[in-house]
Amino acid sequence: MPQFDKFHLEQSESLGRLHHEGVASSPRFALIFLGSFVLGLVAALVVNFLGNSAQVFPSPVRESESDRGWKARIVERFVAENRPPEAIVFGSSRAWQIKASTVEQLTGLRTFNWAVTSGTVLDSRIQLAYVTRLGAPPKLILLEIEDAAWAWDGELQPSILSHVGVFRETPFPDNVRVFGDACSSGTIPATVRSLLALTRPVGASQTWRYFNGQLWLDDGYIVMVDAERAKIRGQFFFEKVIQENITELRSLWSKPYRVHPRWIRYLEEFLDIAKANGIRIVAFVPPMHQAWEKACFDSEDRRVARRELIDRLAGILAAHGTKLHDYSRVESFGGDPNEFWDGTHQTPVNMDRMTRAMLGADAASPATAPDDLDLIKRYVPENINRE
Amino acid sequence: MLFNSYFFVFVFLPAVFGLFWYGSHSLRWRLGLLTFASYTFYSWWQFEDWDDFVGTFVIRDWSDLENSLWHWRFTILMLLSSSVDYWAAKWILRLPADAAVRRKTLLAISLTANLGLLGLFKYLGFFSQVANDLSSFLGGGPLPVISLILPVGISFYTFESMSYVIDVYRGIAKPAKGYLDYACFISFFPHLVAGPIIRYSDILHQFRDVNWVRRYPDWDQVNTGLLFLTIGMLKKLLIADVLALKVNAIWNALGQGTVLGPELAWAGVLGYTFRIYFDFSGYSDMAIGLGHLFAVRLPQNFDSPYKATDPSDFWRRWHITLSAWLRDYLYIPLGGSRNNKRTRNLLVTMLLGGLWHGAAWLFIIWGAWHGLLLAVFHSLKSRGWWMSNERPFGYWFNRQLTFALVVIGWVFFRAADVHTTGYSHASLVPAWRMFGELFGFYGLSPGLGAPAFPAILWLLVALCWLWCNFAPNTFESLYRPMIRWRYAVLAGGIMAACVLQFGHSVDFLYFRF
């Protein structure tokens, strides 16, 4: 019979003996540990809240520069100045470049583009509830329906917390999750950045912003400055962008089409709020680039699932008296298959045509809204002529 | 559930700790609570969210039942696996000593069940892939390649369960006093998913130790547990995860065919060498610390392995509980060093040890490499050709030589996880490519798309080398009395810093094994 030594437990046994040989057992060490732990966390949370390097908190010292925080503050200001938006664009970054000025020209309504990064129907429902609570419901809403987003049990972005009024409209348990996500964004590097941010002076506020190669106007429209410049120089190749991102984004878009009931519930709540306030809704599904679509919907099952999803959403909207404009094919509104920034975001050329089509105007008629290059020249300090 | 998750730290652990010590001091309550908590801990992996969990209890038809069973499949698997072994051991004991055939049959049933589960979930995919490759090579038609999701921790709990039945069969371990004792031993959450691999005899007496029946915790042991937990978190979240970010970028670039150049390649290999140590020993420290919180002392799993002076010494210091398991249940039964079969037995043991880590050729090669090192070392030592450790030069030379040999092994180990464009997962290409990169065969400077100069990584590698060579390990540190308020403040602060990193943590490496 082999003898089995227990060398691997000896160390632990010795530790055990050490405890019993010690002085009287006391919880003081554990309590100090716990106190120090809690204090450390609270201190980090306060620094992250005030310094706000993650752009997710409603910091009174460092306002969030996320589009959720920034756009909500503009709407709040417009309402306070008694010129609330009469038409609002809701949706994701795929609706960022719907020009408020174009909508304004076509409808005669003061327009604001409130589309936000990774926006979902829950964002739209929260934003609409907020603006209604302010007593300024719009007359018209352009609602982007990102079909693929419905297939994900996606989470609300934590930056929704960056505006207290908007966050208050966030339903349970999403508000708890958002709060948790925001708090967890305060990593050690983020805490250090927040601490450094608190030491820098706060810049003067302005109605437009230019950072990260994007120009944000106070009607919510976003100009892709860097991409426009690269395009002019002949250095922008969207096919390359698609190829570079295809592996990463394909995995994101390849999740099974399983519509979570809560998304449907949020859409219905959104439609109910709109109906209660007599708001007209124009809903649309934007297109993807063909190469992208081919990669993401590479099986018949997925294509069928997508079609069923769009049909289901169209049915829900129809029950509320709203038509869904299905522009999932770029040809459906006379768009140019090459006018894309990447696999999912169209250039202003296509966005303009799509806007006209959904508002019943002639898609081919020449644009009258300010050209993006003019906007760059007007706002961006290092304007394009210096290139 | 992960140790490094908010739910675990802020809800699960305080709740279980509170209920354990202040709920009731009866043995049945404590065993029952820990078993229930451990099964909850384990089942947590199988649900996406609360709705998903609640949904499994709403059963209206067969498809709901099917869905529910599917969700709970890994929990059921662990329950079944441990039950088979418990009952097999119980029946073995009931049989008279002269009923050798029936006793052996019961042992065989238990071992077949355990190894069958491991084979099904861990190796079926690999061997079906091998069969498919072979069939294609020989010009036959493609064979089906089966791919199953590996249940978390299966390699650990099947080994623990097997050791129990074998020890009971051999008559060297006392049987479990009841099913609850046994279920708690197998599922005890600190060691459940990534070890240390414990044996029932390690833990049996602790369940009835004076610490278990006392009304309030032994605070000295709790304090030690907190220190272990903090050091483990520090190793994992502030060292291993930081290394992982940099190291993974280099290995991913290798997988995409980017030329790295020797500097990046060495940074990637040495970075991984320290990452795997801090990741796994960090997990072990956390497990040991958590054990202490519930008055259970788990065995030491790492004893400064990079201070080893020869390959044999390395395996007495690295993943100690696995090495001890392989030695006691494989190497010694094979004959150990008797009858001039040492080389064969070492190679077989280490090959299987490599395969235990994962079903891939590179893990087998890694195991073979260590088997070879051990065989060569014993051969050299028996001839007096291995330098003595008595003189400082010999000692340091042996240490650095052993370290270098271990580093070479890590290239195979890490390469097993590189998905190389155009090659199958089982491909050996990433390892050979990395060896080529280490010596500049593909170019001396990084190519297009290679990660930037890893200054921080080199700095971290240097610090880790100093830590591993000169600092005491966690057990050595805690032999000295550290129960001072300033240590409590420091440890609490470090724990807070670790919690800040939870949102950006990388999975424990050994979860996949």
Question: Layout of SSEs?
Answer:
The complex is a heterodimer of chains A (387) and B (513).
Chain A: H1 7-21, H2 28-51, H3 67-80, E1 87-90, H4 100-107, E2 111-113, H5 121-133, E3 140-144, H6 164-168, H7 174-184, H8 188-199, E4 209-211, E5 214-216, E6 222-224, H9 225-232, H10 238-253, H11 261-276, E7 280-285, H12 290-296, H13 300-319, E8 324-326, H14 348-358, H15 372-379
Parallel strand pairs in A: 1-2, 1-3, 3-7, 7-8
Antiparallel strand pairs in A: 4-5, 5-6
Helix pairs in contact in A: 2-8, 5-11, 10-12
Chain B: H1 6-22, H2 27-43, H3 50-55, H4 62-71, H5 73-94, H6 100-137, H7 154-170, H8 179-187, H9 189-192, H10 200-203, H11 210-213, H12 219-255, H13 261-293, H14 311-317, H15 320-334, H16 342-357, H17 361-382, H18 392-415, H19 429-438, H20 455-470, H21 474-479, H22 485-500
Helix pairs in contact in B: 1-2, 2-8, 5-6, 5-7, 5-8, 6-7, 12-13, 12-22, 13-18, 13-19, 13-20, 15-16, 16-17, 17-18, 18-19
How would you briefly describe this protein structure?
The complex is a heterodimer of chains A (387) and B (513). With 387 residues, chain A is of the alpha/beta class.
Would you give an account of this structure?
- The complex is a heterodimer of chains A (387) and B (513).
- Chain A is an alpha/beta fold and 387 residues long.
- Chain A is built from 15 helices and 8 strands.
- The longest helix of chain A is centred in the first third of the chain and has 24 residues, at 28-51.
- The termini of chain A are far apart.
- Mean pLDDT of chain A is 83; it is low at 1-9 and 16-24.
- Chain B is built from 22 helices and no strands.
- The model of chain B has no long low-confidence stretch (mean pLDDT 87).
- At the A-B interface, α1, α2 and α7 of A face α12, α15, α21 and α22 of B.
Keywords for this entry:
heterodimer; A: about 375 residues; alpha/beta; about 10% strand; globular; disordered N terminus; B: about 525 residues; mainly alpha
